[in-house]
């Protein structure tokens, strides 16, 4: 039950309310005990999975002086949208096998620190009291980053590239989605020498993600200004909204784009261009204006 509440993000308060509505005595301080048991088991399992992933990825590469140079993708995510999130996650994924090799969480928030500050404020204790408590709490504090939410992804990349040699691995090809901040941070480790000294990091581009990024930029820029009855000017996005260029449509375009690229490896550029163009027509087709006349007519076709 504690694990289920942690999984859905309800926490202690959510479980307390649920048990109260069921007329069941709440766990009280036992919740923290069971929570720590679940977290310890989860961390052990994650470490085992990551170790197996690194071991499997090494079989795909040839060691150079006992170190494996790998081609990886890096991506980050935040707890919530916008630039106000207090939690972020970065992960390194081996590009050929799709295995997660390592991950890092970055936090600008510590719940225990916030609670302690509130308690001291109620007791009218000075700031020195909190600083004294923080010395003992430092090793357990969940806040490990000070800066903007947007910079948390680059911080995760910095930590991941900085410790890759612990597994005798170098991430020598860095595939990104066009945002170079994480790549730049990794290259600037050790006073600009990079994480691996003479072995430099090569930057690769994920063309599928670059397509999505470019289309989203176009969608945000195409706007129409309309004046309301009160005289206010509203900016309306013409390409967004229902039955237009939504996120799901962009993701679909990215999938088909990737399929077209993989099918035409080693083929002619004209065939690749046509396959990509056909996917655009397929996604823009409607019941009134059907655009399937150029879709491929073969067994492995993505058009039904």
| Number of helices, counting only DSSP H or I runs of 4 residues or more | 10
> What is the CATH first-level class name of the domain at 63-108 and 143-205?
Alpha Beta
β-strand amount: 15-25%
Q: What characterizes the major β-sheet?
A: 6 strands, mixed
Task: Report how far apart the termini are.
Answer: 44 Å
CATH architecture of the domain at 63-108 and 143-205: 2-Layer Sandwich
Write down the overall mean pLDDT.
Answer: 83
CATH topology of the domain at 63-108 and 143-205: Nucleotidyltransferase, domain 5
Low-confidence stretches: none
Rounded to an integer in angstroms, the radius of gyration calculated over CA atoms is: 25 Å
H/E series: HHHEEEEHHHEHEHEEHH
Please give the number of β-strands: 8
Look at the helices and sheets and give the structural class. alpha/beta
Helix content: 40-55%
The coarse silhouette is globular
Task: Give a nutshell description of this structure.
By secondary structure, the chain is of the alpha/beta class. Among the domains are: 1-59, no CATH class; 63-108 and 143-205, 2-Layer Sandwich (Nucleotidyltransferase, domain 5). Helix content is 44%, strand content 17%.
Features:
Mutator-like transposase domain-containing protein, Nucleotidyltransferase, domain 5, 304 residues, single chain, two-stranded antiparallel ribbon, six-stranded mixed sheet, alpha/beta, Mutator_transp_dom, 10 helices
């Amino acid at each position: 039950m504690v694990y289920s509440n942690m999984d859905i993000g309800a926490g202690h308060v959510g479980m307390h309310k649920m048990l109260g509505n069921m007329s069941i005595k709440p766990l009280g301080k036992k919740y923290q005990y069971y929570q720590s048991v679940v977290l310890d088991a989860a961390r052990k399992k994650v470490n085992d999975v990551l170790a197996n992933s690194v071991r499997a990825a090494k079989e795909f590469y040839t060691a150079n002086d006992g170190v494996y140079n790998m081609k990886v993708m890096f991506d980050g995510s935040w707890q919530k949208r916008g630039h106000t999130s207090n939690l972020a996650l970065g992960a390194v994924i081996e590009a050929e096998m799709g295995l997660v090799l390592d991950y890092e969480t970055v936090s600008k928030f510590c719940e225990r620190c916030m609670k302690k500050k509130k308690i001291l404020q109620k007791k009218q204790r000075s700031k020195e009291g909190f600083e004294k408590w923080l010395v003992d709490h430092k090793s357990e504090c969940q806040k490990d980053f000070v800066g903007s939410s947007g910079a948390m992804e680059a911080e995760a990349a910095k930590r991941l590239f900085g410790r890759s040699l612990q597994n005798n691995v170098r991430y020598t090809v860095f595939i990104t989605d066009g945002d170079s901040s994480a790549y730049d941070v990794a290259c600037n480790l050790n006073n600009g020498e990079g994480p691996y000294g003479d072995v430099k990091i090569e930057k690769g581009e994920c063309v599928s993600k670059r397509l999505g990024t470019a289309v989203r930029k176009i969608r945000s820029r195409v706007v129409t200004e309309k004046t309301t009855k009160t005289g206010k000017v509203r900016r309306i996005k013409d390409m967004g909204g229902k039955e237009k260029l939504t996120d799901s449509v962009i993701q679909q375009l990215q999938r088909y784009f990737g399929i077209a690229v993989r099918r035409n490896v080693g083929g002619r550029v004209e065939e690749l261009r046509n396959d990509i163009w056909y996917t655009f027509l397929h996604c823009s087709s409607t019941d009134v204006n059907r655009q399937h006349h150029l879709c491929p007519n073969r067994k492995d076709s993505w058009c039904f």
